[in-house]
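Model: You mentioned two targets. I'll fold them one after the other.
Researcher: Yes, keep them separate.
Model: Target one:
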Amino acid sequence: MKKTEMADVIAEKAGLSKKNALYCINLVCELIADEIVKEGAVALHGVGTFKVKQRAARTAHNPRTGQKISVPARRVVGFRPASSLVKAVAAKK
């Protein structure tokens, strides 16, 4: 589902205009991103937790040339789904 499709569903279910529904979705996404940068984690009950993780520096190789390259340490965003979401996905066949 894309953001615009989600906005259509929200607009229909909540009785909002599509423009307002899309604004709300964009606002939630912006708030999540801001909070992850500021606090390092965001937990959404029933959905999961977004958390900043530290990825260690490592040595990799260029698949084209086989040459070893150094990959620096960096921060990445990880997602851990809530157990209720995992169970819902597992139950759906």
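Model: Target two:
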Amino acid sequence: MGMDVSGMVSLITDPGDMIVFAHRTYHAAYPNQTDRIRLSCGLNFRPRKEWIDAPWPLPESAKTFVSSLPQRLQPLVENYTGVDFSWRRESMMG
């Protein structure tokens, strides 16, 4: 299929499928051969000392999520950048 790497395992997926792997996993994607936009999203866990200066405001859904957590869990969401659930794959795909 055009990618020849010793030990490689191809994952053939359907649109909308999610693949999760560790950050050090070598990975690639086949070229997009459609006229539709292909999206990806990266999520990560990081040490608290690494601060992200997000250029977007914290969505109301994220503020609600953070404020609903018990006090003992509040340190886990310090500098949370949020997820905007109004951003949908379908709206980008046309």
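Researcher: Noted. Anything on target two?
Model: Residues 2 and 30 are 8 Å apart (CA to CA).
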